[in-house]
Design goal:
Oligomer: single chain
Strand content: 25-35%
Order of helices and strands: EEEEHEEEEHHHEEEEEHEEH
Helix content: 10-25%
Length: 300
C-alpha cells in the first residue's frame, strides 16, 4: 500500500528549519538525478526544526532492478509530510532506534523509508521538545484517508468506501521486531546472509543431500529451524512483504515445511527470549543434521 524504496535509497538531506515545510533531496539507485522535496508539514518532536542527513545501502543495489522498481517515481516530490522521526526521545511514534520517514506525494501517493537511528545524522539543532506539540494524529489520519480515496477512485470504487485505520499494525510489528532485535543483538536475515541462500525449489530432489544454510533456534526450548532455501514473498503489486523459507523444523515433531521471517522475528520462547540465528553454524547436509530421517528401511 506504499512505495518502500529502502533497498534503492542511497542518501539524502531533509530540512525542517522553516516551520511547516520539509525540503531537501534524496539519491536513489536506478535514478540518474536527485529527487527534490517540497513538502508541507513538520518532523516529529525529536528532530523538529532540524536539518538531517539520511544514509542507506542503495549503492549495492542492482541498477537495472532498481530502475524498474522506481519507474514512474517523480523527481519532484510535492505533497504532505507523514510521520518523520529519527527514533529519538520523546518517541512519539516509533520506539528507540527505529527511524521512519513517510510522506504523501501528489504524484506517487504514500512513500515510506525505514532505517535505524544510526543512519540519521542531525545537522542542526532541533526545537526543544518542550516548545512543540506531538504531530496531530487526526491530520495524519486525514493524509491516509486522502491517499486511500485516491486509490479507490483509480479502482472505480466509491470514495465513501475507502476507510483509513492508519498504519498501526505495521508500526506495532516494527516495535516488536526492534525490541526482539535488541535482545538477540542481531538481525535474523541481514543482506549478506540473505544473498547466500538458494531460492525456493532449487534443491528439489536432493533429499538428504540438500544443504542447510541457516539455523534459527529458541534459547529457552528445543525448537530449531534449519533453512535450505528461501525467497521474498511479494504482494500483487510486486512489492516485498515478507520472506519465505523452506527447511527442516525440530519442534513437537521433526518435519519439513515452510516458515516466514515475520514469524521468526516476532515470536518469543517460553522464557520470553526471541528466536536467534546461530552465528557459528556452518552449511551441512540434511542427512548430517537428521540422519534418522534418511536411513533406508532396515538400516540402523
Amino acid at each position: 500500500m506504499a512505495w518502500r524504496p529502502n533497498e534503492q535509497f542511497i542518501e539524502g538531506i531533509l530540512d525542517n528549519s522553516v516551520p511547516g515545510k520539509v525540503t531537501g533531496w534524496m539519491r536513489f539507485a536506478g535514478m540518474k538525478e536527485n529527487v527534490i522535496f517540497d513538502l508541507e508539514g513538520d518532523f516529529h518532536r525529536d528532530i523538529r526544526g532540524a536539518k538531517v542527513r539520511l544514509c542507506g545501502d542503495g549503492e549495492s543495489a542492482n541498477p537495472e532492478e532498481s530502475a524498474g522498481y522506481l519507474e514512474g517515481f517523480s523527481k519532484l516530490q510535492k505533497g504532505n509530510v507523514g510521520d518523520m522521526t529519527a527514533g529519538l526521545p520523546p518517541y512519539d511514534y516509533t520506539p528507540e532506534g527505529y527511524a521512519y520517514f513517510e510522506w504523501y506525494s501528489e504524484d506517487n501517493g504514500r512513500v515510506v523509508l525505514e532505517m535505524g537511528t544510526n543512519q540519521v545524522e542531525i545537522l542542526s539543532q532541533p526545537i526543544p521538545v518542550c516548545e512543540s506539540y506531538p504531530v496531530d494524529r487526526k491530520k495524519q489520519a486525514e493524509n491516509m484517508a486522502g491517499f486511500l480515496c485516491g486509490i479507490a477512485k483509480a479502482c472505480g470504487i466509491p470514495e465513501t468506501n475507502a476507510v483509513s485505520i492508519a498504519d498501526t499494525r505495521a508500526v506495532e510489528r516494527a516495535k516488536r521486531v526492534l525490541a526482539n532485535d535488541k535482545i538477540r543483538g542481531m538481525k535474523l536475515l541481514p543482506k549478506e546472509v540473505r544473498e547466500q541462500l538458494p531460492p525456493l525449489y532449487s534443491q528439489d530432489g536432493k533429499g538428504g543431500k540438500a544443504v542447510v544454510h541457516l539455523k534459527f533456534f529458541t534459547p529457552s526450548s528445543s525448537w530449531t529451524w534449519y533453512a535450505t532455501e528461501g525467497e521474498p514473498e511479494l504482494d500483487e503489486s510486486g512489492k516485498e512483504v515478507d520472506f519465505k523459507f523452506f527447511g527442516l523444523v525440530f519442534g513437537h515433531e521433526r518435519e519439513f515445511g515452510y516458515f516466514l521471517l515475520s514469524e521468526l522475528e516476532e515470536v518469543r520462547g517460553p522464557m520470553g527470549l526471541p528466536i536467534e540465528r546461530d552465528l557459528y553454524f556452518k552449511p551441512k547436509t540434511l542427512e548430517e543434521i537428521a540422519p534418522e530421517l534418511f536411513r533406508k528401511e532396515g538400516q540402523q
